[in-house]
């Protein structure tokens, strides 16, 4: 009975979203206040009913109700409680309900934090989100009902959660990623609402920016969590595999990064208007594409859910209708948007344009590499795959160019900057970066490595040009602390996010080029060395967990003879399915990670194993944390809060005209 | 031509040139990195150029796995139930690698017809058959729904 209540609640949410998808939008077109005012209560209602629905589904998981199909497929009575609860998103149906619930959460957030926007605009935004909600819930009800029962004979026990998912990473990665992903629907809805109203002004960009920044920050964390999880769970020592399902979040992220920069230009200068709208549509398409690829079973990957062709077709239909409709609307409305072309060939606008072009080209190249095998197969019936070398070959050079621009952009001014000013400002920075890049790796590594030099030069370039810019900004203030206080939060947000790029660059570059690994067969008591690290294998013993048995090995790790402690990698067999799984042991450090994975046991207690030394690998995720903090800070800037006190959009547009941008020296992308 | 139009044109030309160059580079990089997929039958019949980087997919033949006791060398055969191709690999096999399971291997074929794998992939989900393995079996005319060695015993 209880699962049926969940489904009933889902159906109620569906009915409400049909209302939300129609009445407020029509109301906005006809200036019907009553209909427009329905938007907020309807959004709240959808959130409540989807909340009840997902709550009930969680309850069936926790209480081991194996008569529900997905509980039987994804859970087991032996599973620890926290995995029972999170097993909810361990399969297609439950994770899609979570996805839809996230959307309703964003809708609630929009209805709460939109008090200062005109009601027509809010009605349209929530209406568009309501339409998305309609299609998502319809998809669930039609093809993937999470509350489906097994009749007439439910199994006595469930067949267990996929062992690779029984991990902390599984608890945090999917919800965070979904939340970031779905956040771009909000930005999309803002863009569509603006297109519908025919008014794409700076006010629109200003309203969208905090939402875009927050979604982007959450998506950054979501992707980083996925990368971190893959690194320590999958056991091949990598942190990014260019897997076809990893790529769509990255594509979305790159487009989202372009979007938050382009929104800055649109807000500050009123240019790139139609381009910004297009980016909002594209970023949203990226998120739908990710759903499509994961759930259609078109690609094989670690993420793929068991496939069902009707689902793929359904999502493709949503994708085509939503994106096609949006692009059609765009094609009709875009020519009406007039951007003033008031900037010179050397100006902040141009550097941000370069940023956008580079980001979009990288996104497009990843898209091509991801989709090409599918298209090729459809055309020729031959199966091909495109390996990581392709992605590395394209992505690396583009990112180098992007980082070069990144140093110059914040230093340049809106409208026009003299080239000689930039040269004068940045010549020393460039020289210093090169000096640091050549000397530092030499001191640490005692060898000349081209890759390390490039990485360190570029990272120094980011950090030093930021420092220089900061110094310029506070140079004519009385004291340093007073100067620092005058700078806006969004300026600090930009600085921190850009420092994050430098940190991540160091991590990516140095890990890629200086990681070492060795696969060996070791008898108990034997030692394997890797660089200055020695790993002594002290033997293995049988041990037991809540729902698995394992062989646990003990290693003594030392560096140059000094002990660093012990590591305990395991090889587990999960009882419910008999699935083997390796649990690596990691000694994490700020400057390097050491880790060991076990292979299989051979004669006389000897084991095959791989040991790794990964310098600076933590910096990859540290950089992502910096970026997310930066994005969040920029979104909480006080000019958005000040905006909330304003009565209508007209005030802002008027203000925009009288207030020259030069009054805001701390303007940031 | 008005000054601002000229400026606009400069920017557009610049962007267009950049895009052309990058599309060219993308296509070049792609053509260098395409791994074609072959079935065991195609490999056994010598359709693959020796030394070419390819992927092969099939089932691990029952009773074919031989692993050395003093090194990481493993030798096994992958089959589409018509032909079997011997595969040599040095390293640690994935968790779900076992006899009777579908795998995909990346590597090259030598003159003796032995496949030297640089990477062996097995699925994370046991009930899930890789699209590539399925394609190989389909090509060999094996019905993946009913073949006795593919249908898991009821437990």
Task: Kindly list the characteristics that best describe this protein.
heterodimer, A: 669 residues, alpha+beta, 6-stranded antiparallel β-sheet, 4-stranded antiparallel β-sheet, 21 helices, 11 strands, 63% helix, B: 155 residues, OB fold (Dihydrolipoamide Acetyltransferase, E2P), 2 domains, 5-stranded mixed barrel, 3 helices, 7 strands, 28% helix, disordered C terminus
Provide an overview of this structure:
The complex is a heterodimer of chains A (669) and B (155). Chain A is an alpha+beta fold. Among the domains of chain A are: 162 residues, no CATH class; 106 residues, no CATH class; 101 residues. Chain A has 21 helices and eleven strands. In chain A, strands 3, 4, 5, 6, 7 and 8 form a six-stranded antiparallel beta sheet that branches. Chain A has a four-stranded antiparallel beta sheet with strand order 2-11-10-9. In chain A, helix 1 runs antiparallel to helix 7. Chain B is of the alpha+beta class. Chain B has two domains: 34 residues; 104 residues, Nucleic acid-binding proteins (OB fold (Dihydrolipoamide Acetyltransferase, E2P), Beta Barrel). Chain B is 28% helix and 28% strand. Chain B has a five-stranded mixed barrel with strand order 2-4-5-7-6. Chain B is elongated and about 80 Å long. Chain B starts with a helix and ends in a 16-residue tail after the last helix. Strand 1 of chain A pairs antiparallel with strand 1 of chain B. Chain B: It comes from OM182 bacterium MED-G28. Chain B: It is found in: Cell inner membrane; Cell membrane. Chain B: Heme chaperone required for the biogenesis of c-type cytochromes. Transiently binds heme delivered by CcmC and transfers the heme to apo-cytochromes in a process facilitated by CcmF and CcmH.
């Amino acid at each position: 009975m209880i699962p049926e209540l969940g489904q009933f609640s889902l159906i109620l949410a569906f009915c409400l979203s049909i209302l939300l998808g129609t009445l407020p939008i029509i109301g906005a077109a006809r200036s019907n206040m009553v209909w427009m005012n329905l938007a907020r209560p309807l959004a709240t209602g959808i959130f409540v009913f989807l909340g009840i629905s997902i709550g009930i589904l969680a309850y069936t998981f926790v209480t081991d109700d194996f008569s529900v199909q997905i509980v039987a497929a994804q859970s087991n009575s032996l599973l620890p409680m926290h995995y029972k609860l999170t097993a909810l998103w361990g399969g297609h149906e439950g994770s899609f309900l979570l996805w839809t619930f996230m959307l309703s959460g964003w809708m609630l957030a929009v209805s709460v934090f939109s008090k200062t926007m005109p009601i027509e605009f809010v009605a349209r935004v929530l209406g568009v989100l309501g339409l998305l909600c309609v299609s998502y819930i319809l998809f669930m009800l039609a093809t993937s009902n999470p509350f489906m029962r097994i009749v007439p004979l439910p199994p006595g026990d469930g067949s267990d959660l996929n062992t690779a998912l029984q991990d902390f990473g599984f608890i945090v990665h999917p919800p965070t990623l979904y939340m970031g992903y779905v956040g771009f629907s909000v930005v999309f809805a803002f863009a569509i609402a603006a297109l519908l109203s025919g008014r794409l002004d700076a006010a629109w960009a200003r309203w969208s920016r905090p939402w875009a920044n927050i979604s982007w920050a959450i998506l950054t964390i979501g992707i980083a969590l996925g990368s971190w999880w893959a690194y320590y769970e999958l056991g091949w020592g990598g942190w990014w595999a260019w897997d076809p399902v990893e790529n769509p979040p990255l594509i979305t992220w790159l487009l989202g990064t372009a979007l938050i920069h382009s929104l800055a230009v649109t807000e500050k200068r009123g240019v790139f208007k139609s381009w910004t709208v297009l980016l909002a549509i594209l970023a949203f398409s990226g998120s739908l594409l990710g759903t499509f690829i994961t759930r259609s079973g078109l690609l094989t990957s670690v993420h793929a859910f068991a496939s069902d062709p009707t689902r793929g077709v359904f999502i493709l239909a949503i994708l085509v209708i939503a994106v096609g409709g949006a692009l059609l609307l765009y094609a009709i409305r875009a020519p009406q948007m007039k951007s003033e072309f008031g900037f010179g060939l050397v100006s902040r606008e141009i550097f941000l344009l370069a940023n956008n072009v580079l980001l979009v080209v990288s996104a497009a190249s990843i898209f091509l590499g991801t989709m090409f095998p599918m298209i090729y197969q459809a055309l020729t019936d031959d199966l091909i795959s495109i390996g990581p070398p392709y992605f590395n070959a394209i992505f690396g050079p583009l990112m180098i160019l992007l980082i070069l621009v990144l140093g110059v952009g914040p230093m340049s001014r809106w409208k026009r900057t003299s080239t000689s000013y930039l040269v004068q400002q940045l010549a020393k920075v460039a020289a210093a970066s090169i000096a640091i890049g050549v000397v530092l790796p030499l001191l640490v590594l005692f060898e000349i490595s081209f890759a390390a030099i490039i990485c360190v030069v570029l990272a120094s370039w980011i950090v030093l040009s930021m420092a220089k810019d900061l110094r310029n900004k506070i140079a004519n203030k009385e004291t340093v602390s007073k100067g620092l206080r005058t700078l806006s939060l969004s300026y600090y947000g930009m600085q921190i996010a850009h420092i994050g790029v430098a940190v991540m660059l160091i991590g990516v570059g140095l890990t890629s080029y200086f990681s070492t690994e060795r696969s060996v067969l070791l008898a108990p008591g034997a030692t394997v060395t890797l660089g200055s690290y020695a790993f002594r294998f002290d033997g293995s013993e049988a041990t037991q967990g809540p729902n698995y048995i394992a062989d646990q090995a003990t290693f003594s790790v030392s560096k140059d003879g000094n002990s660093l402690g012990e590591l305990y990698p395991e090889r587990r067999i999960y009882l419910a399915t008999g699935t083997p799984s390796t649990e690596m042991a990691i000694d994490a450090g700020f400057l390097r990670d050491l880790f060991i994975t076990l292979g299989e046991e051979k004669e006389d207690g000897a084991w095959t194993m791989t040991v790794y030394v990964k310098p600076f690998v933590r910096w990859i995720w540290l950089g992502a944390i910096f970026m997310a903090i930066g994005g969040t800070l920029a979104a909480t800037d006080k000019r958005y809060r000040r905006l909330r006190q304003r009565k209508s959009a007209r005030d802002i547009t008027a203000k925009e005209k009288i207030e020259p941008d030069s009054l805001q020296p701390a303007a940031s992308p | 031509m008005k000054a601002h139009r000229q400026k606009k044109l400069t920017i557009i030309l610049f962007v267009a040139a950049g895009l052309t160059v990058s599309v060219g580079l993308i296509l070049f990089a792609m053509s260098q990195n395409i791994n074609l997929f072959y079935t065991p039958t195609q490999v056994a019949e010598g359709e693959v150029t020796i030394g070419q980087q390819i992927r092969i997919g099939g089932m691990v033949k029952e009773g074919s796995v031989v692993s050395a006791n003093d090194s990481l060398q493993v030798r096994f055969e992958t089959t589409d139930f018509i032909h079997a191709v011997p595969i040599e690999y040095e390293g640690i096999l994935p968790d779900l690698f076992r006899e009777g399971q579908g795998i995909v291997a990346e590597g090259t074929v030598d003159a003796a017809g032995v496949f030297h794998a640089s990477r062996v992939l097995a699925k994370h989900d046991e009930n899930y058959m890789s699209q590539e393995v399925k394609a190989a079996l389909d090509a060999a005319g094996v019905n993946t729904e009913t073949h006795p060695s593919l249908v898991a015993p009821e437990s």
